[in-house]
Each structure stands twice: as structure tokens, then as C-alpha cells.
Amino acid sequence: MQPREQITIFSGNANIPLAQEICDSLNVPLGQAVIKRFSDAEVWVEIDENVRGKDVFVVQSTSYPANENLMDLLIMVDALKRASAERITAVIPYYGYARQDRKVQPRTPISSKLVADLITAAGAHRVVSVDLHAGQIQGFFNIPFDHLFAMPILLEYIKSNLLNDVVIVTPDAGGAERARAYAKRLNSTLAMIDKRRARPNESEVMNIIGEISGKTAIIVDDMVDTAGTLTQAAAALKERGAKKIYACITHGVLSGKAIERIENSDLSELVITNTIHVSPEAKKCEKIRVLSMAKLLGEAIHRINNSDSVSSLFV
């Protein structure tokens, strides 16, 4: 794969291994930049190569620590703009603040929109992200937005390893469209878990809609954070007679006691992608398997650089 000559890819500090994998897939070197912090944690960026007139991509997930990684992205984009890059694309595999996409009660912010405004104001010309928590976030941007999906990678894994009397399970009503897309491509049945959330990061499984008994249940979702919902869902599915329980989830946030909960859960395996840098603790967990998004992201970058269709990747 040979991109146009002027392409340059830089990485923030959030997920350098993924950025390097993307560069390897495109046969281009990772751009040279320095990100430092003053003693008060103020961010300072220097671009160490000429980017004038180039098509530049900045790979940076806004994962933990979300605020630091977001500021790294904004300041790097600003530095590239002032260095006269022709076009700057923010490649944000995991879009932080995506869960704050609407007002859920009076006097609360819509932080997803604020983050979109910040990225645009910094000077990004285009944004690429993977499996947004809420698809409408694309509308928060007044610049082109390419929404990618991990489904082809996760489907390939399911077809190669788990396809045996499968039922696709969505852990909530909001994920029904995603689960339906998986079930359609696998020619399998669909089930849904009705849950009630008392407070942020806590949920209670109430009921399961669909036939589970004797089947291999595969929970699909966009992210796993504290794993409370996921492990409760696994327990409920086991109770309803599921033979084995797997989860295929794009973003492994895995905060708090998530890894401990997964290890002690009824899950046979949790499959995530590397949109977020995988911690050493997660790598040690025998129940967690990580799939790479590098080739898909690299292909998307290649197509954007050559003004080709990105949506055709997911037909």
C-alpha cells in the first residue's frame, strides 16, 4: 500500500503502539514530535520535521487520562496548523466524553459537543473515529467526520472461533441496532437485556428478552468501562441457561475493578480492540483477548489521503 508522498502520521502519548502499527501497515515512518509537560503539568509540543503543505494525521485516543490526552491532541493540532500543514485529520480511535451526548437532567452539560468545538477550533480539518457511543456526535462537528466500525474485525474473529449455535446479545436497548447488524451477518438470533441504572457506572440486570438456553451467547457493545454491566449480564445469561458466554466489545476502557470483575465472572472470554492502549494488567488477564485495529485505520487513512471512499470498507 503506497500512500501519496505528502502523508505524515503523528501520535500523541495515548496509544503510540497503535500509531506505530498503522505506520507499519502504510510503510511510512511515524512523524517526529516532542510532547513535554512543565512542572505544573502544562503541555508543550514541538513538531520536529517539516509538514508544510502535507496531509497530516494525528492518532490520539482521548482515553484515560482523558483530559491530558485531549489537551495533547488539541495542542498538537494547533502546532501543525501553525507549521502550515495543508490538511490535518484527527484520528481519534476512542472518542472520550462520548457518553455526555445529551442533557439527561436539568443543568448538565453536553460535553461531547464541547469537545467537538474544541477540536474544530484547534484547527482540525477532518475527524476519524471508531464506534462512537452515540452516532449523533458526528453532527456536533461542522467538518467532515468519518465514522469507522470494528465490526469487520470482530466478525472475522467470531466466524473463525465462536460460530456454534450463537445468539447475539445487546446489553441495553441502545445497542439494539449494533446487535441486529451482527446477528444479520452471522445469520443468528438476537436477544436483549433490560437493565435499570441507578447511578453512573452502576446497573442492575432486570430481564432478558429472547431465547438463550443451550446457546453460545455473544454480548456486543461499543465499550466496557467498569465491567459492572457486562459481568451482571454474563451472570444473567448463565442463569438463563447459556452454554458459553463471550463478549466482543470495541473499546476496552477497563477502569476501576473491571479486570478483577472480568476474571471472576461467568465470561469465557472478552474480546476487545486496541483503540485504547491495553494496560499490563489487562494483558495478563487470561480472559481478555486484544485484536488490532491498525490495518483498518491504516486503510481508512490511505483512502482519505487518496480521496477514495471510506464507507465502502463496511459494505
Summarize the structure.
This protein has helices at about 15-25, 65-80, 110-120, 150-160, 175-185, 230-240, 260-265, 280-285, 295-305, and strands spanning about 5-10, 35, 45, 55-60, 85-90, 125-130, 145-150, 165-170, 190-200, 200-210, 215-225, 245-250, 270-275, 290.
Written account of the structure:
The protein has 9 helices and 14 strands. The longest helix is centred in the N-terminal third of the chain and has 17 residues, at 66-82. With 315 residues, the protein is α/β, with parallel strands linked by helices. The radius of gyration is 20 Å and the shape is globular. Helix 1 crosses helix 9 (294-305) and helix 2 packs parallel to helix 3 (111-122). It starts with 6 loop residues before the first strand and ends in a 10-residue tail after the last helix. The model has no long low-confidence stretch (mean pLDDT 93). The protein has a 7-stranded mixed sheet, sandwiched between helices. The protein has helices spanning 16-26, 66-82, 111-122, 151-161, 176-186, 228-239, 258-263, 280-284, 294-305, and strands at residues 7-11, 33-37, 43-47, 55-59, 87-92, 126-130, 145-148, 166-170, 189-199, 202-209, 216-224, 244-252, 269-273, 288-291.
